[in-house]
Amino acid sequence: MRLFRFPKTGNLDDLTLMEQGIPKPAERQVLVRLRAASLNYRDHAIAMGRYGMGVSPENLIPLSDGAGEVVDLGPGVTRWKTGDRVASTFFQAWPRGEAQPADFATALGGAIDGVLTEYRVFDENGLVHLPANLSFEEGATLPCAAVTVWNALFTQRPLRAGETVLTLGTGGVSMFALQLARAAGARVLITSSSDEKLERAKQLGASGTVNYKTHPEWDKEILKLTDGRGVDHVVEVGGPGTLQRSLNAVRIGGFVYLIGVLTGGDINPLPILGKNATVRGIYVGSREMFEAMNSAISVNGIQPVIDRVFSFEETKDAYRHLASGSHMGKVVIRFP
Amino acid sequence: MRLFRFPKTGNLDDLTLMEQGIPKPAERQVLVRLRAASLNYRDHAIAMGRYGMGVSPENLIPLSDGAGEVVDLGPGVTRWKTGDRVASTFFQAWPRGEAQPADFATALGGAIDGVLTEYRVFDENGLVHLPANLSFEEGATLPCAAVTVWNALFTQRPLRAGETVLTLGTGGVSMFALQLARAAGARVLITSSSDEKLERAKQLGASGTVNYKTHPEWDKEILKLTDGRGVDHVVEVGGPGTLQRSLNAVRIGGFVYLIGVLTGGDINPLPILGKNATVRGIYVGSREMFEAMNSAISVNGIQPVIDRVFSFEETKDAYRHLASGSHMGKVVIRFP
Amino acid sequence: MRLFRFPKTGNLDDLTLMEQGIPKPAERQVLVRLRAASLNYRDHAIAMGRYGMGVSPENLIPLSDGAGEVVDLGPGVTRWKTGDRVASTFFQAWPRGEAQPADFATALGGAIDGVLTEYRVFDENGLVHLPANLSFEEGATLPCAAVTVWNALFTQRPLRAGETVLTLGTGGVSMFALQLARAAGARVLITSSSDEKLERAKQLGASGTVNYKTHPEWDKEILKLTDGRGVDHVVEVGGPGTLQRSLNAVRIGGFVYLIGVLTGGDINPLPILGKNATVRGIYVGSREMFEAMNSAISVNGIQPVIDRVFSFEETKDAYRHLASGSHMGKVVIRFP
Amino acid sequence: MRLFRFPKTGNLDDLTLMEQGIPKPAERQVLVRLRAASLNYRDHAIAMGRYGMGVSPENLIPLSDGAGEVVDLGPGVTRWKTGDRVASTFFQAWPRGEAQPADFATALGGAIDGVLTEYRVFDENGLVHLPANLSFEEGATLPCAAVTVWNALFTQRPLRAGETVLTLGTGGVSMFALQLARAAGARVLITSSSDEKLERAKQLGASGTVNYKTHPEWDKEILKLTDGRGVDHVVEVGGPGTLQRSLNAVRIGGFVYLIGVLTGGDINPLPILGKNATVRGIYVGSREMFEAMNSAISVNGIQPVIDRVFSFEETKDAYRHLASGSHMGKVVIRFP
């Protein structure tokens, strides 16, 4: 079988295609033939050696998001049979409930080897069923970006139908925020630097859009779109560089989900107090969240937004495409 | 102005049309010209003298659910201006948060006079804005049935997209359960004794139906429709006569909202324990719930299901139509 | 090693002392030398063949509640070292979050063999650390009764300091309800048929007591003790025979935790609606709940109430003592 | 009657003693003879003209926290009778549930006139009963500092017995955090620059203390006191200057309540993400929270920590004493 590793990081060209024997599943493990994977900004940051979060990717197989087929079972497996269509869970050991510190040491493609490999053995608890309405390419978009959105919007203080969600930009997380929030009956506002992308976001259900290039004070536009009241929820993927405006744009008592680290810098935290706001850090989610989200995807016939599909051999191009920021939705790699 | 009163109760024919002067709004009160009202089973039970809940309807103006237009303001009113389109809140004094015992003494058309009158003075806190997309007839369907559903499904433990809701029958409460749960991305199962009504429920978004006449053990059918797992939520309008089967049909850890009192009798409560279920009694809801629901109605373009509209003069016929049980959705009275 | 089994059930005399070799821990398993166990009503019901909940105790080793010492480790164990003082979790496979149906098939001393054995192999996930301030006898009281109380009062809608809790009788569950609710700053009311037990309950922190023998309408006494308002929470161990009065005694919007099955019969569910009450069925809890509770026990120096300690050889006497209902708190068996 | 006003602000010496007639309560209002008041940092900031939060204190009667006796009733009052012992609610119009923006315009001693007056008319909804176990001086400590702590620790995600709370310094808010968290069965850690104050905090129930003068990296000390895990909750009164260390000291998935504005500056928000932490801004709370807290105070016999009581005439000295930061607990003014 073929797989990619980073013998060292700091440069995308370090990514090396290798050959290796297909592993055997041990007790309570299953062997999965991977058919597709998707990329997240985290993957690029890891490749560049810029990712914190306790990652030391010595000779790492990258990528957290994979989908494929169960092809062999180790002894004692009860959850799977061969032929099952599955996706990997970002954390291999966060089944349900709240995260425990040890769970974070099981993040695929970072703390442990990931899915950029034609075959991989998983603990039987580290997989979920693919929604029946999704292809492998679509299923591979879910483990990190979509579960993160689900954790933000549907767990501690679930979104209610009729509330307003603001999501920033048109990357993978934001597209899932748009689709899942719409499926749950919310109104969605979205920002982008591209009028064309905003137009497509409208077709996907966004009811208000702001071009942050032509309106650098986009927070004021969001307030206008909410009669001065502010939005109920912000899916904040921008990081410190946008958080201050997100705090301006949220309503009194509203919720800001801190997800992304695209930008650095410091912020003045006093608006959190003045707005009685809740700022919650989100780091993907549990297998149970993934399964609940898959049910929402099936019931509502959601099709993930895929920007472009690359072949296994074009993997480096896929990374570069993601890094360009020109995409809308997810960047996917199709395996042979 | 004209209005109806029950000088005594026990017989629908006691309902008496009267003439009376239009009242003046006092401090912080508004005068509303009512344009439509809707009926609930509670109204029929009150008319028949069979309603408990602390009601002593001496010379009562009945009905809790009204919609109309603000036509005059008392001193100090800040929430309204003339011309505003409004609906009455079931409780005149439950603004937000949890109900206090004293709130229950402000239920329209029961504890205090209701809306079956061409004009009525309301405390300025006892009204909500009508959703812009609804007519007076549609708006008049909301205060009791729809708010009850909202309180059940969207407050203490909000429904999540992808979950499954079971609702019993096709009365006003059940139709709102169907529409609001669908808007929030849930899967909805529904029962009825009429295949024709079930067919219409499917058109409204139900994904599974059971005719409880041809399948008296409808709980088993519901289990089949959920692969033996049971539903996440039951909107239980039937009362003791159906609750036992509802407990069979709910999943382990699921939720049953006890709303209706259509039937009497005792139940064996042990399945509540065996299922780890939560059974919650719901008695309409607060003004804040009403407002949150109206936002969901607007954002998702929900049109309430109206079975039939009667004229003010046909009010007794409207009561009889409701009592017949042949309706699907709400029975409405249009005022001149 | 010695252990007890029920070759068949229906009679306590069927309980048979046996000899068997000490088992070896397999992968991710640990061997525990048990030092104490405690009894619950469930154990007596199982012995009598009267327990439902999917139990078929063919040749069963009974009892769910054990405490002891880790004496050997299988390969790959990371959570334990030899010498650790541990208690068993009631469910061997409910780590955290909500229960899944499959978890219920791992209940000790029912679905699977229990702890009435000098040595037992456990999955490394089926144990918790004993609080440092507790002896083995005290620790053995926790797995079923105390965790049940914790799940009821401190999870979905946690008890708040200053609220009022009613608990029925003075068995193991009720004594933990009294102690844990007091530690959390609540006011506790309690019922019993014995003035002597009520006096001891006061010494343990109860601030109001009702003898239900001299006051068969004990619900009215509870209302008096709460100025007519009713209690916030009822730890309902009586079952159908007391639930109706518990619903009278709870406040509008209050919570009744259905735990016990001491009595049978049907109830009229309408008060659940009239009171806007929440009735929640509780079936023990997760390992995470057990650990959170142990922290509360340590921080607050709680000492479980032990009625009497029997020797391993006196096990049948311990069962009979529990069945007599004369105890207050827990009945414990000390192992050699 | 006598009262104090700030004809202008920016200097404490502007505070002016005046004489004025006793006002009459209008409809649904009550007249209260105030017997004590307490000071908060907010009051000093308002006096210095440094308080944001929408305050324009033209000729303001300052102070939000008062306690006294009902001496006269306007027409239609149902909640009070003369002789009732009461405290003011910080917001005159936040009865229960979540705050609405308009509620913030009713903050005493800021948005509207406060309680530094011998008599004051209140809306009947703007008062709570004093706990029976508290004097007027003790009762006057509650409206701002104690309710803030209650809102932080006991509402959205209530503190559970056995959890660990960190509170910063020994001001009024921190002393209530210590006492209320202990009453609820939590473990409390506390910081101060004074070993003597830390010693007194231990006597009040703190189980761990850190002198931040001798240990400027106090966050590391807190981690040591929690075996490296971090605390569950931080009552963060320091503001930006301490928030970064508070984020270091909180556990993964923990809660930081942003209350105080003692210091300014910016912070790096990324640890919120890395810790999966929730940072929630708290701005006092509702009347219902005040009432729930009073129940906790009564049931657990909590006596507020009063640093020093000044006479009405010594009011400026009281302000200066607060500004000195040398106090521990609350600074109170006793009225004649």
SSE topology:
The structure is a homotetramer of 336-residue chains.
Chain A: E1 2-5, E2 16-19, E3 29-38, H1 41-47, E4 65-73, E5 85-88, E6 119-123, E7 127-129, H2 136-139, H3 142-154, E8 164-168, H4 172-183, E9 187-192, H5 195-203, E10 208-211, H6 218-225, E11 231-236, H7 240-249, E12 250-258, H8 270-274, E13 278-281, H9 287-299, E14 306-311, H10 315-324, E15 330-334
Helix pairs in contact in A: 3-4, 6-7
- Principal-axes shape call of chain A: globular
Q: What's the CATH class of the largest domain in chain A, please?
A: Alpha Beta
How many domains make up the coordinates of chain A? 2
Note the total helix count of chain A. 10
CATH superfamily of the largest domain in chain A: Medium-chain alcohol dehydrogenases, catalytic domain
State the end-to-end CA separation of chain A: 11 Å
What's the main sheet of chain A like?
Answer: 7 strands, mixed
Please tell me the CATH architecture of the largest domain in chain A by its name.
Alpha-Beta Complex
Q: How would you concisely characterize the structure shown here?
A:
Four copies of one chain form a homotetramer. The first copy, chain A, has 336 residues and is of the alpha/beta class.
